[in-house]
Structures are given as structure tokens and as C-alpha cells.
Design a protein that fits this description.
By secondary structure, this protein is α/β, with parallel strands linked by helices. It contains 9 helices and 15 strands. It starts with a strand and ends with a strand. Bound molecules: NADP nicotinamide-adenine-dinucleotide phosphate (NAP).
Length: 331
């Protein structure tokens, strides 16, 4: 059996995550028992939710214990099987976490079809982030053609899909992203109508210019100052799918100044956790798979090489250093 490299949670972060919060170990894998498969991980997904799992606070999911393998979505290939449902060479999706190999009884493994889509896409646009965009926009935002949809973290895994789906629905799509390079990509490559650089220092004026008819749906990935500014530009009966609060994951809570907008505009805000809506995944994945395979929906990936670089890439993700879906390539 091969040696396995794993990344463990070594310490709970105090504020900003440090590389010393992780520990890399090498372990020996036991021989396979009947019914088991050995999977070699090819790509690990790095996602903002992992920051929450490093803390020991009440949340919608359990924390990672100190000394445990960091949690995470993975795609890989079966290298040995003693399970009749899987054969060597099968490509699979599973939550194996930050490690090179995993042994499974097959129950939590899902076969993936890489004939039309590359393996990594099942961790991004045709995976959890894509379904998050699909669910939040369609089920909560429910935009009508002609309405204005604004999305933050617009060049990222979730935001990039939100804006492209909004365009397909006939809406005006406006992104908010950090820096000119990301904003140019969002408009020129992804086809949004406009994108506002929230780091440029004119957030309210720039958003107002980008959304001249006001904002009907704000898909919130970041919270904080961007949310507070958007509140001033909402139309009556606006909807806010509250997907994430990344601006606060490493920081103190940001007090909202424009809370009155909820009342005067009769706004609906709804937080959601995509894994609690498994009933819509097959429909969302089928739709996203078709859109991505045909090229109608585009995606971009930031790929770190080697599991040992996962901690650094994760720390970068929380600072906006990724440009598109953040992955780690292990093979
Ligand atoms: N509710 C759910 O079920 C669910 C599921 C998946 C993801 N999410 C949430 O969705 C959000 C986006 O996730 P993702 O996987 O698509 O990540 P992502 O957008 O690919 O990467 C994170 C991005 O967040 C932005 N960011 C980082 N710090 C920020 C700050 N202080 N202020 C504003 N923006 C900041 C950065 O973009 P810029 O350079 O543009 O700032 C960074 O590239 C996260 O909040 C995540 O927790 C929720």
C-alpha cells in the first residue's frame, strides 16, 4: 500500500488562519478489506466554509477536531477495489478531506463522468459551488427578466455562476469583486453587464452607476460593508439570498448602518445552506452540466500544486488571492 500524506488541524486559529494551524503527516495505509476501495485523490477543493470548521463554535455543521484530517470535497480515481460496485479506474467524487488517499466502503462515493467535463469541474461549477449559485439565485432570489441582480465575490466559484445564470434568465447582472483584473474578467469573459471594484474606494457611487434602476436581487457572498452599501440601493420587495459572509470569517462582526432598508423596502433576506437542499441537486447539476459542457457557462480555476501547499492556498483564498475556483492538484 502507498504512504498517505494528510493535512491535520493542529490548532484553532486566532483571527487570521496561519500555516502553523495545520500539520502535515505521513501515515501507512492498511490493506483493503472485503467491500472496500482505495481511492487516490486527484483534486482537493478548498472552500471558505472550511474556515468555520476550524473554530469550535455552534454552527450548522460540526467542527473539525484538533488532530483530525481537514474536511473537504475531493475527486479522484479508484486504484484498487474489493467492492463489486467499483473497479480500478473509476472516477469518483467524495468528501475525503485533505489527504492523498482514502479507503472507503463505497457508500459515500459517487461515480463521475469525465467524457464531456473534466474531473475538477465536479468540485466547482458542476459541483457544490454551482448548485449553491443555482439554489440561492433561483429558489430565493427568484429574479424576473429585466430585474437587476448584484452578486459579490463575483469572479469566484459561486459568484461567477450566479451572474451567468442571471444573464440567462434575462436580468442585468452586476458583479462586485476585488480589483480591476477580476472586474475586467467578470465583464469581458463571463458577460456580466458591469462589475464594481469594491477596493477602489467609491463603492456606493460605482454601484449606483452600475445599477441605475436599483437592485432587485443581491446574492450576498461577503456581508460587511458591501452588504451595507447595497442596502441603500435596494428596490421595493428586493430579495437577498444570504450565501456567505466571507469578509467576516477572519474578522470582527460588521455592524449594519442601513438596516432600515429592510423595512422601508419590504426586503426578504434568507440564509441557506446548500447541503440542506439535496432534493434540488439532481436538477441543478443536470442543468449546470449542460450549460458548462456547451460553453454557455464559463468557469476559471486557481490550482495549487501538491497537498503540502494546501494550507497556503487556503489562507490565500480567505484574502482573495484566488481567481476562480480554488483547487489543489495532487496528481
Ligand atoms: N451557503 C452555502 O451553502 C454556501 C456554499 C458555498 C459557498 N458559500 C459561501 O459563498 C461565498 C463564496 O464562496 P466561493 O467558494 O465561491 O469562494 P470564492 O468566491 O471562489 O473565493 C472567495 C472570494 O471571496 C472574496 N473575499 C475574500 N475576502 C473578502 C472580503 N474581506 N471582502 C469581500 N470579499 C472578500 C475574494 O474575492 P475578491 O478578490 O473579489 O474580494 C475571494 O476570491 C463564501 O462566503 C462561502 O462561504 C456558501
Amino acid at each position: 500500500m502507498p504512504t498517505n500524506m494528510q493535512v491535520l488541524l493542529a490548532a484553532r486559529p486566532k483571527g487570521t488562519v496561519q500555516e502553523s494551524d495545520f500539520r502535515i503527516v505521513k501515515t501507512e495505509l492498511p490493506a483493503l478489506k472485503d467491500g472496500e476501495v482505495l481511492v487516490q485523490v486527484h483534486f482537493l477543493s478548498l472552500d471558505p466554509y472550511m474556515r468555520g470548521r476550524m473554530d469550535d463554535v455552534k454552527s450548522y455543521a460540526a467542527s473539525v477536531n484538533i488532530g483530525d484530517v481537514m474536511t473537504g470535497g475531493t475527486v479522484g480515481e479508484v486504484v484498487e477495489s474489493k467492492n463489486p460496485k467499483f473497479a480500478a479506474g473509476d472516477q469518483v467524487l467524495a468528501m475525503f478531506g485533505w489527504q492523498q488517499y482514502a479507503i472507503s466502503d463505497g457508500r459515500a462515493l459517487q461515480k463521475i463522468d469525465t467524457r464531456k467535463l473534466p474531473m475538477s469541474v465536479y468540485l466547482g461549477s458542476v459541483g457544490m459551488p454551482g448548485v449553491t449559485a443555482w439554489y440561492g439565485l433561483k429558489q430565493i432570489g427568484a429574479p424576473k427578466a429585466g430585474e437587476t441582480v448584484v452578486v459579490s465575490a463575483a469572479s469566484g466559484a459561486v459568484g461567477s455562476i450566479v451572474g451567468q445564470l442571471a444573464k440567462i434568465l434575462g436580468c442585468r447582472a452586476v458583479g462586485v469583486a476585488g480589483g480591476k483584473v477580476k472586474c475586467d474578467y467578470v465583464v469581458n469573459e463571463l458577460g456580466f453587464d458591469a462589475c464594481v471594484d469594491y477596493k477602489a474606494g467609491n463603492l456606493y457611487a460605482d454601484l449606483k452607476a452600475a445599477a441605475p434602476n436599483g437592485i432587485d436581487v443581491y446574492f450576498d457572498n461577503v456581508g460587511g460593508e458591501v452588504l451595507d452599501t447595497v442596502l441603500k440601493l435596494l428596490n421595493a420587495f428586493a430579495r437577498i439570498p444570504l450565501c456567505g459572509l466571507i469578509s467576516g470569517y477572519n474578522a470582527e462582526p460588521y455592524p449594519l448602518k442601513n438596516y432600515r432598508s429592510f423595512l422601508v423596502n419590504r426586503v426578504k433576506l434568507q440564509g441557506f445552506i446548500v447541503s440542506e437542499h439535496m432534493e434540488i441537486w439532481p436538477q441543478a447539476l443536470a442543468e449546470l452540466g449542460g450549460l458548462v459542457a456547451s460553453g454557455r457557462v464559463k468557469y476559471r480555476e486557481s490550482i495549487a500544486q501538491g497537498l503540502e501547499n494546501a494550507p497556503r492556498a487556503f489562507i490565500g483564498l480567505l484574502k482573495g488571492e484566488n481567481f476562480g475556483k480554488q483547487l489543489v492538484k495532487l496528481v
